[in-house]
Amino acid sequence: MNRVPPLSAARAALVRCHACHLLSRMQAPPPGGRVLCPRCGAALHQRKPDSLARAWALTLTACILYIPANTLPIMTVVSMGYGEPSTILSGVQTLIVAGMWPLALVVFIASVAVPVLKLLALIYLLVSVRRKSRWRPRDRTVLYRITESVGRWSMVDVFMIAILAALVKLGSIATIEPGAGALAFAAVVVFTMLAAMSFDPRLIWDAMENPDER
Amino acid sequence: MACQDCDLLCRKRPLRVGEKARCARCGALLYARKPNSIERTLTLALSALILFVLANAYPLLDFRFQGQTLEISVISGVWELYAREMWVLAAVVFVVSILAPLLKILALLYVLLPLWLDRQPWRMARVFRWIETLHPWAMTEVYLLGVLVAYVKLSDIATIVPGVALYAFAMLIVAMAATDATLEPETIWECLETQR
What we know:
The complex is a heterodimer of chains A (214) and B (196).
Chain A: E1 14-16, E2 23-25, H1 51-71, E3 75-79, E4 82-86, H2 88-97, H3 101-130, H4 137-150, H5 156-165, E5 174-178, H6 180-198, H7 202-209
Antiparallel strand pairs in A: 1-2, 3-4, 3-5
Chain B: E1 20-22, E2 29-32, H1 37-57, E3 61-65, E4 68-72, H2 74-83, H3 87-116, H4 124-134, H5 140-154, E5 159-162, H6 164-182, H7 185-195
Antiparallel strand pairs in B: 1-2, 3-4, 3-5
Helix pairs in contact in B: 1-3, 1-6, 2-3, 3-4
């Protein structure tokens, strides 16, 4: 197996259906139309369309939103008429001060470490594909898979706020007002998920197969 | 067949039950042969549906404070966000905690029940594609972690009694993870091919 040079479906003039995985022969699309998969009827693309442009746009949007997500309060706890805004980082800090170490760690990983690492991983993957890097493609593919699967866990804080917000009916004692930071933070998670979905990991491997076109 | 992550052409060969095929170049899981995939996934999806109903019909947490009792459920959290004009946030939470998991379970049942009876569901390809699209947005397990974080945070202030829905929710996560583990998309797509 290894002595034969690796052959990708694209070089063999085959296209893989992104939905049902059937391989079919590549065809030129009719003017203004799309080629459909003969088995399941999904639109066929050699690679995800405009993968890099879309992934860049979504990643940069997420980067910009990351600023209000961390500076604006995600919620304000109002008790006895005194309001105390709390951001993502101050929420972690409160947990540490209260001695809830395991919980602080969970929230820190989900709300701070994962979004930052995810944005960095996406930027790195996009830059490395743009530069047609040939460095450790297999590890970069694994990085992509982790990036794609781990992002959802950042929603923990948003869900926590949704639960706390339901306590509004205890009005006289304390109310919890969700803040604009929560919205920005949810948007960061959604946009990074969309960015990871629009990135096509096969682009990492395309650079491996065309050494002349560097 | 071609690898979904690196586009390498691989020759498909029949597997024994329990075997998995991985891409020789990038290590991606290509396909696997799982025992009684359709029957098992169908059973698990049915249990998931029942658990989903329980998880949403009953309160997650009973919050007791100075003689007052407040029941928090999945939908009441969404509703309070909506009532405070944070409707985008309410919509996001609603979609990923209620709508996407429900649609995913229903779509699975819609595809698998007729296949189990040797029939081809109408528009099967389209519905089955939705399952893959919905998959990343069904964040049941993340939601439960959010509930637990809220639970620990609040347990200092008041007495909180976990409700029926919390247990149903935990079981739902197990059931949904198990459907993902037993479902073999390759087999389903091959059903489409033979029945055309």
